[in-house]
């Protein structure tokens, strides 16, 4: 089983583009998955547009506890260093570049319509 970690931008962009996260991820992943978010992501969603919809949407996903001392991007990078079978769902260009260097699988939104696994 692989753990899919959603970052804040990915969640908000999925809502804006009316992409059903769970169904879409299951379509593109050829293995069993557990969709998760970091606890700091919940903090980041506060005071963002669509935050109530986002919190409701992600309430069914697994929450990974962190020390919350860093940014979500840094926490994600540290988490993937120590854990295998992780896929990161993000729209963040800088985070994508760092993940690609570490050969970590990434899920991203293409053409504001669908998800791809790279």
Task: Outline the structure in words.
The structure is a single chain. With 118 residues, the protein is of the alpha/beta class. The chain has six helices and six strands; from the N terminus they run βααβααβαβαββ. The protein has helices spanning 8-16, 21-28, 39-45, 51-58, 72-82, 93-101, and strands at 2-6, 33-38, 62-64, 86-89, 105-110, 114-117. A six-stranded mixed beta sheet has the order 3-2-1-4-5-6, with helices on both faces. The two termini are 18 Å apart. The mean pLDDT is 93.
Detail the topology: elements first, then pairings.
Layout (H helix, E strand, L loop, with lengths): L1 E5 L1 H9 L4 H8 L4 E6 H7 L5 H8 L3 E3 L7 H11 L3 E4 L3 H9 L3 E6 L3 E4 L1
Main sheet: strands, sense, barrel: 6 strands, mixed
Q: Write down the Rg.
A: 13 Å
> Order of strands side by side in the largest beta sheet?
3-2-1-4-5-6
The CATH topology, please?
Rossmann fold
> What is the CATH class name?
Alpha Beta
Backbone structural class: alpha/beta
Summarize the structure.
With 118 residues, this protein is α/β, with parallel strands linked by helices.
Keywords:
118 residues, alpha/beta, Rossmann fold, six-stranded mixed beta sheet, 6 helices, globular
């Amino acid at each position: 089983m692989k753990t899919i970690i959603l970052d804040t931008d990915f969640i908000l962009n999925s809502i804006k583009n009316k992409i059903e996260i769970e169904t879409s991820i299951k379509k593109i992943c050829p293995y069993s998955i557990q969709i998760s978010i970091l606890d700091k992501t919940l903090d980041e969603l506060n005071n963002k547009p669509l935050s109530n919809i986002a919190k409701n949407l992600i309430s069914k996903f697994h929450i990974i506890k962190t020390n919350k001392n860093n940014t979500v991007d840094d926490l994600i990078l540290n988490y993937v260093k120590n854990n295998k079978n992780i896929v990161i769902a993000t729209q963040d260009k800088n985070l994508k570049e760092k993940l690609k260097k570490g050969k970590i699988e990434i899920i991203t939104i293409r053409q504001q319509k669908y998800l791809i696994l790279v």
